[in-house]
């Protein structure tokens, strides 16, 4: 898989060969760009003249960071996105509060690095994070701060026989906005507060081959699930850096613009709208490595990464009540279509408060 000369996609072919430890594709549609060649030389041969890297050996921290810089995605928000990402530091420094069950009247101001957050498990849901208590603060912080936004990087061995390295790129949003649906011929129906919750963690995972540093595929998280996309189907710009689309309000990731309806089908579903805009985050320009597995050189993890309680309160709206409000504007078969959608709403968005990256199953396991 190599970059085409127009930098719009990676391409692949069954007729390929290796030369000098690098992978080439001679098809007429593909040409090896000088940028990719230099990337491989720097990543694979840096300091390796006296100690060549054996096939399938783990990558060093320096190699992994260089690979991330080479492929670092551009995160594009929807043109109408209201709830932008921010850094965790900005979120905490601008009034985010820690609540404890039974002591709700005495919330704790969180330190910028989360040093005063509780450690260890919280099976009873005793703690949770929320927006500032005053309305002005809640409104301001919920809309995020794209200038402060940074990517949080987690390196881990790929699960496929040690031949890959996974690079997880996590982004934080102070707030997940309300859902919108398409119901038959009505293109856009607001679902009230459905889908809203404090704190939203989204990520992509770059799977690269250890032997040559080639980007093989990318996982895009989407609400409670996600999908793997082959590198040949990604959109690229600025050389080998791919585009990561974030859906309007919900921030589900995707490799291309467009609309996907999540739900019962037949013209009924929750809208996931993706499009480019001038609201973009260059993850390669502002990032922090927060964890790296299988290395002798340990990463100093930020305190907030070990926080295992909820990053937001349990669902603060009644789905049935929100749907009753929507029904007032629908008649006949439109209401019947809405009934089908209601059945999947809590399945898509859940009812519990969101968790942080390290608590999620895909932090250490394979992503499906």
What layout of secondary structure does this protein have?
Elements: E1 2-3, E2 10-11, E3 17-19, E4 22-24, H1 34-45, H2 61-71, E5 74-76, H3 88-93, E6 97-100, E7 108-109, E8 127-130, H4 135-142, E9 151-157, E10 164-176, E11 180-183, E12 186-190, E13 197-209, E14 215-222, E15 225-230, E16 236-237, E17 241-246, E18 253-254, E19 258-262, E20 268-274, E21 280-282, E22 287-292, H5 319-327, H6 333-349
Parallel strand pairs: 5-17, 9-22
Antiparallel strand pairs: 1-2, 3-4, 5-21, 6-7, 6-8, 9-10, 10-13, 11-12, 11-20, 13-14, 14-15, 16-17, 17-18, 19-20
Helix pairs in contact: 1-2, 5-6
Pfam families: Vps62
InterPro entries: Vps62 (IPR009291)
Protein architecture, described:
With 368 residues, this protein is of the alpha+beta class. The protein has 6 helices and 22 strands. The longest helix has 17 residues, at 333-349. The radius of gyration is 22 Å and the shape is globular. The two termini are 23 Å apart.
Kindly report how far apart the N and C termini lie: 23 Å
The run of helices and strands is EEEEHHEHEEEHEEEEEEEEEEEEEEHH
What's the count of strands? 22
Radius of gyration, in angstroms, nearest whole number: 22 Å
Outline, from the CA principal axes? Answer: globular
Reported for the largest beta sheet, the result is: 6 strands, mixed
Number of helices: 6
Number of domains: 1
- Structural class of the helices, strands and pairings? alpha+beta
Strand arrangement in the largest pleated sheet: 15-14-13-10-9-22
Low-confidence stretches: 1-38, 40-55
Task: Report the portion of residues in β strands.
Answer: 25-35%
Percent helix among the residues? Answer: 10-25%
Average pLDDT works out at 85
């Amino acid at each position: 898989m190599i970059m085409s000369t127009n930098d719009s996609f990676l391409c692949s072919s069954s007729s390929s060969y290796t030369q000098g430890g690098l992978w080439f594709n001679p098809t007429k549609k593909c040409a090896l760009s000088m940028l990719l060649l230099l990337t491989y030389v720097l990543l694979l041969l840096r300091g390796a003249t006296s100690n060549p890297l054996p096939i399938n050996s783990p990558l060093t921290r320096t190699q992994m960071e260089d690979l991330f810089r080479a492929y670092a995605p551009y995160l594009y928000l929807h043109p109408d996105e209201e709830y932008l990402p921010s850094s965790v530091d900005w979120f905490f420094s601008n009034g985010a509060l820690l609540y404890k069950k039974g002591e709700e009247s005495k919330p704790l101001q969180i330190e910028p690095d989360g040093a005063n957050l509780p450690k260890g498990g919280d099976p009873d849901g005793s703690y949770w994070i929320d927006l500032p208590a005053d309305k002005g603060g809640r409104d301001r912080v919920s809309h995020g701060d794209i200038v402060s936004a940074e990517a949080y990087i987690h390196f881990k061995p790929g699960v496929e026989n040690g031949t890959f390295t996974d690079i997880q790129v996590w982004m934080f949003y102070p707030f997940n906005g309300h859902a919108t649906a398409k119901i038959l011929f009505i293109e856009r129906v607001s679902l009230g507060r459905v889908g809203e919750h404090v704190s939203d963690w989204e990520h992509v995972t770059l799977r690269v081959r250890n032997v040559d540093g080639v980007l093989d595929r990318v996982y895009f998280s989407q609400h409670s699930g996600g999908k793997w996309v082959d590198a040949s189907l990604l959109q690229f710009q600025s050389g080998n850096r791919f585009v990561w689309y974030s859906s309007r309000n919900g921030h589900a990731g995707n490799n291309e613009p467009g609309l996907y309806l999540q739900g019962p089908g037949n013209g009924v579903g929750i809208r996931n709208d993706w499009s480019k805009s001038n609201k973009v985050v260059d993850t390669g320009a502002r990032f922090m490595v927060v964890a790296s597995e299988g290395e002798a050189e340990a990463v100093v993890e930020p305190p907030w990464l070990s926080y295992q309680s909820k990053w937001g309160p349990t669902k603060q709206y009644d789905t049935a009540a929100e749907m009753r409000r929507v029904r007032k504007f629908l008649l006949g078969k439109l209401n019947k279509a809405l009934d089908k959608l209601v059945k999947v709403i809590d399945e898509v968005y859940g009812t519990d408060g969101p968790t942080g990256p390290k608590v999620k199953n895909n932090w250490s396991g394979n992503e499906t």
